[in-house]
Amino acid sequence: MLRYVSYFKGLSEADLAAVNNHVFEKKAARGEIIVFEGEPSDAIYYVNEGVVKAYKTSADGKEQILRIIRPGDTFNDVPFLGGVNLATAEAMSPVVLYGIKKKDLETMVHDYPQIAKNIIRVLSHRVEEMVNLIEDFSFRHVHGRVAKILLENAGNGGKPRLTQQEMAAMIGTAREMVGRSFKNLEAEGAIRLEHNRIIIANRAVLLKIAGLDE
Amino acid sequence: MPGLPVIDQSKCNCCGLCVNICTRGALKIEGNTVKAVPVEDPDWCTMCELVCPTGAITCPFEIIIDEDGN
After folding, report:
1. Overall domain count for chain A
2. Do A183 and A111 share a structural domain?
3. Which terminus of chain B faces fewer neighbouring Cβ atoms within 10 Å, N or C?
4. Does residue B59 belong to the interface with chain A, where contact is any CB pair within 8 Å?
5. How many CB pairs under 8 A join A and B?
């Protein structure tokens, strides 16, 4: 199993066997919180089965998903040397995880320098993901562009149906940003979400948000 | 009848992630195929689309105008 974990790529069979002594298994049911944001971070986890979501929650209860972690990927690895968990991780299905205590990982880094290189690669990728998300939040006026797409594709049956992924691709942003925009537009009374239908409830408001009002 | 997620069987590798995360039981594995089935209390959370590693499952939205919405 460990050979597939990005942290341990390039290690010999003997080294992997030694590392394996520090691995523990953890199972969680759907909806179970695996790590809580803000609590001391004591382990990293590898998803062997199931799906985990990492998210932040605002003071008013809004959830922003940061990552979806599928089998083969790790999470809770950014506070590598301890500190606190940066996000909450919740099982979206029954999951089987393999964990390594951070104090053990720190020892491994000393014993197997290859692990340090792998960790740098993983953390670089995490930073890249976060920078892309910050770019979306900061510079791309996603909210208005989603409003424009909804206006352009509203048709009471005459227009193609669109997924969040397709809308995200149309405006060059992440899928998560489209979902977030839906919630904001609904809160502003511009649209209503009813199952698989987006109903434009107030065209004038939506036009204004899209920057298309006269 | 509310819509169902759309599954592209040519992309689906039947990993079952979507089936396991669906809280409504709207996705099932039959043989080696994932199928969407109507349920009494459907949702459109789109989480199956989000977790699918191959992009085989999609949850498209129909965009309509409320005629009372000016």
Report:
1. 2
2. no
3. N
4. yes
5. 99
